[in-house]
Amino acid sequence: MNEKRRWITPANVVMLMGVLLTGYLLFSRPFVGVADNGDFSRVMNMAGLTAYDQVEGKAEHFFHFSHSSFSYSAPFQGDYISSQLVLLLPLRLLAEAVNPGYFDIRWLGVGYVLLNLMALWLVLRQTHDRSRGFILLLGGAILFVFFDAGYTAYFNSLYGEAATLTGCLLVFAAGLNLLSREHSLRASSLAGFFAAALFLTTAKLQNAPVGLLLALSFCDSPLYARINAGGPLRSAWRSPSQPFPSCSTGWRRRI
Fold first, then answer.
1. Which of residues 94 and 188 earns the better pLDDT score?
2. CB neighbours of 234 closer than 8 A, spacing ≥ 6?
3. Number of C-alpha atoms within 13 angstroms, CB side, residue 113?
4. Predicted pLDDT of residue 55
5. Is the pLDDT score of 213 beyond 90?
6. Residue 185 to residue 235: CA distance in whole angstroms
7. What b/e readout covers 173-200, taking b as 16+ CB neighbours within 10 angstroms?
8. How many C-beta atoms surround the C-beta of residue 114 within 10 A?
9. Is 103 helix (H, G, I), strand (E, B) or coil?
10. Per-residue model confidence as pLDDT tens digits over 136-168
11. At 50, phi and psi to the nearest 5?
């Protein structure tokens, strides 16, 4: 009995609620997604997907319905680059191996859900010394915002908003992980933050200013100052004779 109760923690309860919530909203009937407004084609051309119903009228394809099924075609037929493709291309290959007939967009939805849940777990991991009420309140707030159907419906689509939403939560989680390891910083934690920031920044062209803001904020942070001054990570990235480029703390005043 005590062994079972050991697993009933506020963090596990929040994670379970996240799984059940996204499972019900995205993978139950009827299908929940977002209709194509014409933006899908640039991602479809790179991922090797095309419309499942080739004789479907324009109104039905673009305005009346959100579609869950796509046919396979030759990939890399365009020049659109996005972090969406890092997730979409492996899932497309896996889906084609399982079902060569058509690609179900919910494969991509599963990928985004797993990333969202991973970010949620990283956030909750930093609250082990907090009260149960705090953990439940924080977890409930994240579920209320980042797991809302108005946002997660984009997971079952080819819009860049899905990668943007997931990237925001990943950056937040990776940032908390960095702050919690201020006195025992690891290269893996720093690499995870940079990977999350890159995923968010390259999700859409409109996200480029976010990447610039993240870079400036990091350069003005105590973590960067520690590394540049010869912290434990310095030898992993540069030799002592090659200091990191200095970032002036006065960039905000100049802007």
1. 94
2. 227, 228, 240, 244
3. 25
4. 67
5. no
6. 13
7. bbbbbbebeeeebeeebbebbeebbbbb
8. 13
9. strand
10. 999 999 999 999 999 999 999 999 999 999 999
11. -145, 170
The long-range contacts involving 141-145, CB below 8 angstroms and separated by at least 24 positions, are 142/14, 142/169, 143/14, 143/17, 143/18, 143/21
For the chain, give the percent of residues with pLDDT over 90.
Answer: 45
Residues with Cβ < 8 Å from 134, sequence gap 6 or more? 127
Quick: pLDDT tens for 231-245: 555 444 444 444 444
pTM above 0.85, yes or no: no
Q: Which one-letter amino acid corresponds to residue 142?
A: I
**Cα–Cα distances in angstroms (integers) from residue 69 to residues 25, 74, 80, 100, in the given order:** 18, 17, 22, 12
How many angstroms separate the CA atoms of 66 and 233, rounded?
48
Instruction: Say if residues 30 and 153 touch (Cβ distance below 8 Å).
Output: no
Kindly give, in sequence order, each residue whose CB lies less than 8 Å from that of residue 243, ignoring residues fewer than 6 positions away. 228
